[in-house]
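hi!! sorry for the late reply, been swamped w classes. u asked for the two structures so here they r. pasted raw, havent cleaned anything up. first the sequence of the first protein and right below it the tokens
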Amino acid sequence: MTKTTIFRSSRVAIAMVGAVVAPTFAFSQAAPRPAARRPIAPASASTSGPTVFTRALDDRATADTAQAQGRVAAPTLRPGEVVAAPYVEGEGGPPNAGRIIGTGDVPGIPLTESERPLQSAERIFIVVPPGMTSAVGTRYVAVRRGPLLEGVGQVMIPTGIVAVQRAQPGQAVEATVVARFEQLFIGDELVSMVNVPRDLPRPTAQTGGAATRVLWTEGEPALPSLQSYILLDGSVARFRPGDQVTLYRERRLSEDGVVLPESEIAVAQVVRVTAQAASAMIIHQSHAAIQDGTSGRVTARMP
């Protein structure tokens, strides 16, 4: 099975490398001379074999170290990844949410506004969360309710960000859709922007970390992949943003009764923590076998 790791900055890096190595043809250009080979000193029969074998082991150790280091997340969290991450509230959802109540769009044909997704930069009307400001420029996150996790809480799924444009006494507050994560509708609730920690140090690898399990996967796909969001049980592990969790299949017995060791499935980075659960993003994947109940343990911890 081929392991795949995608870093969030890799798209830019790949584009830059492609531009640099693109071939350039010129009729007057001479063919490049082959690079000179470094002479290899003859080795005796007694030393040639062990030297090659030792060099192969060193190369393998270097590759394993680089692969392990490659799994460590970026030292800081990206605000967009934090704001867009599904999270868990107490049962009943946010206690003091605002709401999107209408659109400023005037359709040319009759339609049911609440059934039409709102568009980027669209003028809308909102009610801000109770006790919160309606000052121009203030931003709120639009959310919709996901499934209710029995004994845990209510899943809330961010759908976009709206910014206040104008507030007049006795009228709904005017706002604009400035970002969309999913389809955004009239009726979506509004909550305050989450505080995104910045300049976080790199997590430190550890052994024997606290155990956890997958509670829910965004979209409930059959085969979750890289950059998918998952929710982790936080009843035992006291997560912090930036922690890393390794998901794995537990040891099991073969048909012959032999104990098979556990197998690593994926690595996820915690991006948001609430009192009920932790939101995490898959940053490394060995097997497409993540599902509700998959076991995990903390393998890298923020200081």
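now the second protein. again sequence first, tokens right under
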Amino acid sequence: MPLTPEESFFRAFRHQAFDVAELSLSTYVMTTARGTCPYIAVPAFVSRSFRHSAIYIRRDRGIARPDDLRGKRIGVPEYQVTAAVWARAILAEDYGVQPADMAWVSGGVEEPGRLEKVALALPPGVSLNRAPEGRRLSEMLAAGDIDALMVPRAPSCFDAGHPDVGRLFDDPAGAAAAWFRRTGIFPIMHVIGIRRSLAEAHPWLPQSVFKAFAAARDAAMERLHDTRRLPSPCPSSSRKQRGRAR
């Protein structure tokens, strides 16, 4: 079933809707630590992403560096969403900006009413409030009702070119490359989970699922190599092909 990550993760953790599913790493780790996770994960990391690009800011709030986020209101789709966990880790480890230094607002980025998938136990001193009913975080950032936003994908107000919305890191790719050279970390976002009861009943199942995803990865990489080996079409042959098509 092809689903958005938001719908897939919610259904997986709220309703245990799937036998095998792509899962949020942060939610998987949190529920596993509590002993309540209905899934067993295999190390098939189907989504990885650097998250220096995940922090969007209001340009008119005096935010020029990460430590300028102290005292600001930061939107997150869910406090424990993996992208925000990695972004907070970068702020804390590299810039000394702790989660308790900011006020957090959770809610849907483009659609109102998003809820946390699982119950939270927030660290001491962390303030988290729900967005007002009917409000979207992208809209709130555009209106200046929040000062920044941590999201896995760019909010619509940024894509639309809002003049007062930008990224915290002017060169997020450069910042991520430098961070990777220093840490060697390529952040994991998603894993593949198997219903725990099935894995216990069929001990061979996790290994078989992992082999299937490894085979899929290898096939995809081979296609990339094949594409790279293809010669570039010359202009004359392209014109001939277009002529035949007509």
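hope this helps!! also noticed smth abt the second:
The chain has two domains: 5-48+187-229, 52-183.
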